[in-house]
Amino acid sequence: xxxxxxxxxxxxxxxxxxxxxxxxxxxxxxxxxxxxxxxxxxxxxxxxxxxxxxxxxxxxxxxxxxxxxxxxxxxxxxxxxxxxxxxxxxxxxxxxxxxxxxxxxxxxxxxxxxxxxxxxxxxxxxxxxxxxxxxxxxxxxxxxxxxxxxxxxxxxxxxxxxxxxxxxxxxxxxxxxxxxxxxxxxxxxxxxxxxxxxxxxxxxxxxxxxxxxxxxxxxxxxx
Length: 223
Ligand SMILES: NC(=O)c1ccc[n+]([C@@H]2O[C@H](COP(=O)([O-])OP(=O)(O)OC[C@H]3O[C@@H](n4cnc5c(N)ncnc54)[C@H](OP(=O)(O)O)[C@@H]3O)[C@@H](O)[C@H]2O)c1
What we know:
Layout: E1 7-15, E2 19-22, H1 28-31, H2 51-57, E3 60-64, H3 65-72, E4 84-88, E5 120-123, H4 126-135, E6 140-144, H5 146-155, E7 160-166, E8 184-186, E9 201-208, E10 214-220
Parallel strand pairs: 1-6, 1-7, 3-4, 3-6, 4-5
Antiparallel strand pairs: 2-8, 7-10, 9-10
The structure holds NADP nicotinamide-adenine-dinucleotide phosphate (NAP).
NADP nicotinamide-adenine-dinucleotide phosphate binds at residues 12-13, 20-21, 25, 27, 30, 63-67, 70, 88-92, 124-126, 144-148, 151, 185.
């Protein structure tokens, strides 16, 4: 029985082969794609959800520790600082100050200030996430990061998906100069998600957006 009082939405972009980032966390192929004059301009009127429309409805962002570390490496916190933030992690005790972020293969953190919304903290499990979202009266949760999205999907907690497909194959061998980081980090597990049955969606809208990318907006079809 699903007692959630909140909805959750995934707003993510993938390469044609389904990756949300290279293994080394590079997402420049997405955020700064090589210009291609053959791409048409975004279609209008839009039927999908723009990021601005999406984020304006969100009261909680939940992201995996990997995504959090990438956000910290950016010059600015990429989301409105007023949004409540949960970071899923079994290795962080609390949102780190910049000096005690665990060393990892992620880009080196810079001095991005951690946002100061009404609520922000670390959660160590999906059960803890559920408790906090219920206690805080969450309404629309933005689920960010591949492993995190996979966890929400296996619990049946994803209500909407806004997926952007970038016109690129990342393949297996296009990593950094050491040949490391080829392939990438999938939005959905390539081994298949542990869902008890097929999860079906209604296509709400689809649009060509910037740089030849296609954005599709789906709403889950509950039995
Ligand atoms: N293209 C896009 O739209 C898009 C969107 C978001 C992110 N990204 C990119 O995707 C990459 C990160 O994605 P990712 O799949 O590698 O990782 P992720 O979901 O961001 O983070 C994974 C980590 O989160 C924690 N975690 C996740 N589920 C958990 C659970 N159920 N219980 C406890 N802890 C849990 C674990 O941290 P611990 O190891 O600390 O336990 C795990 O190692 C980054 O490069 C980011 O920039 C791209």
